[in-house]
Design goal:
The mean pLDDT is 96. Helix 7 (159-169) links the parallel strand 5 (141-145) and strand 6 (172-176). It is built from 12 helices and 12 strands. It is of the alpha/beta class. The longest helix is centred in the last third of the chain and has 37 residues, at 240-276. The strands form 3 sheets. The chain has a 7-stranded mixed β-sheet with strand order 2-8-7-6-5-3-4, with helices on both faces. It has a 3-stranded antiparallel β-sheet with strand order 9-10-12. The chain has 2 domains: 4-11 and 257-379, Aspartate Aminotransferase, domain 1 (Alpha-Beta Complex); 16-252, Type I PLP-dependent aspartate aminotransferase-like (Major domain) (Aspartate Aminotransferase, domain 2), CATH 3.40.640. Helix 8 (240-276) packs across helix 12 (359-379). It binds pyridoxal-5'-phosphate (PLP). Pyridoxal-5'-phosphate binds at residues 70-72, 75, 100, 102, 147, 151, 176, 178-179, 199, 201-202, 210.
């Protein structure tokens, strides 16, 4: 049976080059980067080189990169860190209805702490309208956070335009770029960004490592207090091996961005076209303004979960919405925000392609999927 992984939006395998780069930092070059001896300076040097690689990839300065444990931590750090450092200026934050759960749940937590959060709607393709941002900013707004691309439906937002509005109004702008990093360009200067979140395990690096870009001069409260690592913003002994792996993954991802995007866009479009040949299906998200590797398809009358389980039996790994929402039976908050009905939102499957996928994989999916859908619809109480 084949083993076809089409869930790269959930996580990716560690690239062999990345693994090779990390290896020495576990047992040979194991030093604590704060130590004064040669073991320490070796680790500190590795951190410095890694920081430089990542800063250059997004056109930032080295001292604007804060290493974290991943996207969730970076996003929490932005929301809580900006909120608490600026609470004398204002208590209003703007984000969107389609953000990742870590943004939404950190925002909810802030609401319990006395902050006010506006969740902007999106259009039927999942895009935020810059005009809505403009209209919603008030005198006491301190932060706007809009994701660069959505993790479930792949829709890309007009982040540069939104960020420009925020800069003109003197409000900090953050983008969560976890899903889009190294797939589409991210340039913190050209994009007018104040803060940006990136992580490693979505780009063929190890899990448990990420970074926050924070423009020079912006004050935030740290989440972790301790020995003063990362210029006092994120205490704990640095995950040197993870950071080295992250930097290697960024280096490879930047080199491959264009060619991977071109190849995956072709595969994606073939997959979308094939899926839409099945009756009563639709594409979730924008048809062109979407990540090169994302195909999210809605299937009427059946549940996405059943499709996933049947695909798994055939050796194909895909998902419904995000990996996180699969723990609950609630329909995807993203699809609901597009204006879909409960039963529509329940019938969606996300295929996220990656480096291992070939045209033969797409052909195989398109061969087995119609029969799975037909079988499930025959059994479905929802009729057809
Ligand atoms: C995966 C993801 C996150 C969470 O990142 P972790 O490193 O797994 O904590 C946040 N936002 C988006 C858009 C993501 O895709």
């Amino acid at each position: 049976m084949p083993k076809i992984y089409m869930d790269h939006g959930a996580t990716t395998p560690v690239d062999t080059e990345v693994l090779k780069a990390m290896q020495p930092y576990f047992s040979k070059k194991f030093g604590n980067a704060s130590s004064l001896h040669q073991f320490g300076t070796e680790a500190a040097e590795a951190l410095k080189v890694s920081r430089k690689t990542i800063a250059q990839a997004i056109n930032a300065e080295e001292d604007e990169i804060i290493f974290t444990s991943g996207g969730t931590e970076s996003n929490n750090m932005v929301l809580k860190g900006i909120a608490f450092a600026n609470k004398d200026k204002g208590k209003h934050i703007i984000t969107t209805k389609v953000e990742h759960d870590c943004i939404l749940n950190a925002s909810k937590w802030l609401q319990n702490q006395g902050f006010e959060v506006t969740y902007l709607p999106v259009d039927k393709f999942g895009q935020v309208n810059p005009e809505d941002v403009k209209k919603t900013i008030r005198g006491d707004t301190i932060l706007v956070s809009v994701m660069q691309a959505n993790n479930e439906i792949g829709t890309i937002n007009p982040v540069r335009e939104i960020a420009k509005i925020c800069r003109e109004k003197g409000v900090y702008f953050h983008t969560d770029a976890c899903q889009s990093f190294t797939k589409i360009p991210l340039d913190v200067k050209a994009d007018n960004l104040d803060l940006a979140t990136i992580n490693s395990h979505k780009i063929y690096g190890p899990k448990g490592v990420g970074a926050l870009y924070k423009k020079r001069g912006i004050k935030i409260e740290p989440l972790l207090h301790g020995g003063g690592h990362e210029r006092g913003l994120r205490s704990t002994t640095e995950n040197v091996a993870g950071i080295v792996g992250f930097a290697k993954a960024v280096e490879i991802g930047m080199k491959r961005m264009e060619s991977d995007a071109k190849r995956l866009t072709e595969l994606r479009d073939k997959l979308i076209k094939g899926c839409l040949q099945i009756e009563n299906t639709w594409l979730n998200g924008h048809s062109t303004n979407r990540l090169p590797n994302n195909a999210n398809i809605g299937f009427a009358f059946i549940e996405g979960e059943s499709i996933i389980l049947n695909l798994d039996i055939k050796g194909i790994a895909a998902s419904t919405g995000s990996a996180c929402s699969s723990h609950t039976l609630e329909p995807s908050h993203v699809l609901m925000a597009l204006g879909q009905k409960h039963e529509e939102a329940h019938g969606s499957v996300r295929f996220t392609l990656g480096r291992s996928n070939t045209e033969a994989h797409v052909d195989y999916v398109l061969k087995v999927l119609p029969r799975i859908v037909e079988k499930l619809r025959d059994m479905s109480p929802m009729g057809k």
